[in-house]
């Protein structure tokens, strides 16, 4: 079983004796393996593997199937001048590469009022000027403290995390100490490399404390599944060794220019020396996004589910020329394109570039590039012009592009929200919660909803009863857990904040919670109010709700007609799609 691994380094390795291959264990979470579908129903396994210092070591495995493999090149890049190669031995720009020491404090999604035990990890970073450093998001995610150390220095300097881009696995750091920057020079970025170009990866991987340099070539450039962000962006595949601790370190061309950031490897019984680098096109998008907005806003999406149109009869039926266009199967309700594009439209161009019937667009040297890559190059709030054929008529429409709105988010930088009502613990469903609890604990119905349901409006969440803190007031309900709550006193629940608002404003005698399949939980309002402080005290819980739920509730659902939409039959990511003829853009 193949695995893509996002890496940062440990003080030691742990390898299960039964493993057929060397497997690195995840430092970001306690050891818990998610329940996977049978091998015949999946092609690849995306495994975020990293290392931590401490007594507990484990791994977290995410099932993702890399289906769409279109060759990608940067079509805006001019031919670059080939310079003489640089001798890396003794090169001063290696001093711009630093070691990152992070202490992580991850949220506890099972017990959302507290944090998990702290653990430490190491990774790499490099200087980019203006007092800033670049590294991977997974190196500093949920950080309590970040320190960096220069090559040949014995002093660690405190760093501040300025921005984290989950989808692109990038993070921007700053160091205030002037002593740290004395005598240093930032790295310069190069252009997207060509196939078979030499590449040198620099960082601080396991096996030693000093800087490490490994060399290889560019094997492939295409859309790649980013293990940490569960996203599909441009990636560079190389055969240079990338090990735990290399994450966040730069990859150089022969001219000493940084052409990307090392971030993950592909491990499998039948795979060797497959590493991945985040290209400068993605890095530039992350940095410019931060400069424009003062924060990271994400990579945009059209929010449309597309079908390839390779069959001539399909094209003829829809009055589309051969080898042209992709069919719109569904538009996400939260996408600005929801009122612009329609089911049955055929997208034939994007910002003036023709789209082929396989969802690709032309590129230099007779290559083709995935259509969704063009979308990802835009910024949140940009306008795109889309050429479509609707009922045989050609037309052009314009729509704003924004990041996708997930009903069950993959990552959340904030602490999990929760509210406790008479011992009933409610929290939003997230991939982090599923990862922590295990897929088998949710049941097939709820798990299917998490994997195949689209958000109908901004802010929609699946709110679940995660557990019941036993007390006389909730007797008979103690064994409930991991079930979706649908309504409160007859009102459909939109999100966790909406539930808190309904509870606070309730004037009825009873709290009536309605769950899936009309299962009811009824509590006496006055008795629940009397018992709640005691339940919190007995369980050592400082507050009956998360801090965000003390803020006034704002309804973001907007168009109420969307509330009746049936959105429970569509794979939410390309990784869940079993047919090569379908893709999200």
Automatic annotation (TrEMBL):
One GO MF term attached to the UniProt entry: serine-type endopeptidase activity
Matches recorded under CDD domains: cpPDZ_Deg_HtrA-like
Q: Which InterPro entries match?
A: DEGP_PDZ, DEGP_PDZ_sf, PDZ, PDZ_sf, Peptidase_S1_PA, Peptidase_S1_PA_chymotrypsin, Peptidase_S1C
One biological-process term from Gene Ontology?
proteolysis
Q: Out of the domains of life, which is the source?
A: Eukaryota
* UniProt entry tagged with the keyword Hydrolase: yes
One family name in Pfam for this protein? PDZ_2
Extract the Gene3D superfamilies matched here. Answer: 2.30.42.10, 3.20.190.20, Trypsin-like serine proteases
Q: Which residues form the PDZ domain?
A: 287-355
Similarity section: Belongs to the peptidase S1C family.
Name this polypeptide is given: PDZ domain-containing protein
Q: Which organism is it from?
A: Rhynchospora breviuscula
């Amino acid at each position: 079983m193949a695995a893509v691994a996002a890496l940062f380094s440990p003080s030691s390795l742990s390898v299960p004796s039964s493993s057929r291959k060397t497997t690195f264990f995840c430092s970001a979470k306690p050891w818990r393996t998610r329940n996977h579908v049978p091998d015949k129903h999946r092609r690849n396994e995306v495994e975020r593997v990293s290392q931590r210092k401490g007594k507990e070591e484990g791994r977290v495995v995410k099932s993702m199937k890399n289906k769409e493999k279109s060759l990608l090149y940067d079509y805006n890049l001019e031919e670059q001048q080939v310079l003489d190669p640089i001798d890396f031995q003794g090169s001063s720009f290696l001093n711009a590469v630093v070691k990152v020491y992070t202490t992580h404090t991850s949220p506890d999604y099972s017990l959302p009022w507290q944090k998990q035990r702290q653990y430490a990890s190491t990774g790499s970073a490099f200087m980019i000027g203006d007092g800033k450093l670049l590294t991977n998001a997974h190196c500093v995610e949920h950080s309590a403290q970040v320190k960096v150390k220069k090559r040949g220095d014995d002093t660690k300097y405190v760093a501040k995390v300025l921005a984290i881009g989950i989808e692109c696995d990038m993070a921007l750091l700053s160091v205030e100490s002037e002593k740290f920057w004395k005598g240093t020079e930032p790295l310069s970025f190069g252009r997207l490399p060509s196939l078979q170009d030499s590449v040198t990866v620099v960082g601080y991987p396991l096996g030693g404390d000093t800087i490490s340099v490994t060399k290889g070539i560019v094997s492939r450039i295409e859309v790649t599944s980013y293990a940490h962000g569960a996203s599909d962006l441009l990636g560079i595949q190389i055969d240079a060794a990338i090990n735990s601790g290399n994450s966040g370190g730069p990859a150089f061309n022969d001219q000493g220019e940084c052409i990307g950031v090392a971030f993950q490897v592909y491990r499998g019984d039948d795979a060797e020396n497959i590493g991945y680098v985040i290209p400068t096109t993605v890095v530039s998008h992350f940095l410019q996004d931060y400069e424009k907005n003062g924060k990271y806003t994400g990579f945009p999406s059209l929010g449309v589910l597309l079908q390839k149109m390779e069959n001539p009869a399909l094209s003829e039926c829809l009055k589309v020329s051969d080898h042209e266009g992709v069919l719109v199967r569904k538009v996400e309700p939260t996408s600005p394109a929801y009122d612009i594009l329609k089911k049955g439209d055929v997208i034939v161009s994007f910002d003036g570039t023709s789209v082929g019937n396989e969802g690709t667009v032309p590129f230099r040297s007779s290559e083709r590039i995935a259509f969704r890559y063009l979308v990802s190059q835009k910024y949140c709030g940009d306008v795109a012009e889309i050429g479509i054929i609707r009922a045989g008529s050609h037309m052009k429409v314009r729509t704003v592009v924004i990041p996708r709105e997930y009903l069950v988010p993959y990552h959340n930088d904030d602490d999990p929200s929760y509210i406790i009502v008479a011992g009933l613990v409610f929290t939003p469903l997230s991939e982090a919660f599923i990862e922590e609890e295990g897929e088998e604990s949710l049941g097939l119905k709820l798990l299917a909803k998490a994997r195949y349901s689209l958000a109908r409006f901004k802010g929609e969440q699946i709110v679940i009863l995660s557990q019941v803190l036993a007390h006389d007031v909730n007797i008979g309900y103690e064994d409930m857990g991991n079930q979706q709550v649908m309504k409160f006193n007859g009102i459909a629940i939109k999100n966790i904040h909406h539930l808190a608002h309904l509870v606070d404003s309730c004037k009825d005698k009873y709290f009536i919670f309605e769950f899936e399949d009309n299962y009811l939980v009824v509590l006496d309002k006055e008795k629940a109010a009397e018992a709640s402080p005691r339940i919190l005290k007995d369980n050592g819980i400082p507050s009956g709700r998360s801090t965000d739920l003390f803020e006034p509730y704002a309804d973001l659902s907007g168009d109420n007609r969307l509330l009746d939409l049936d959105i429970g039959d569509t794979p939410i990511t390309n990784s869940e799609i079993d047919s090569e003829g379908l893709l999200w853009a």
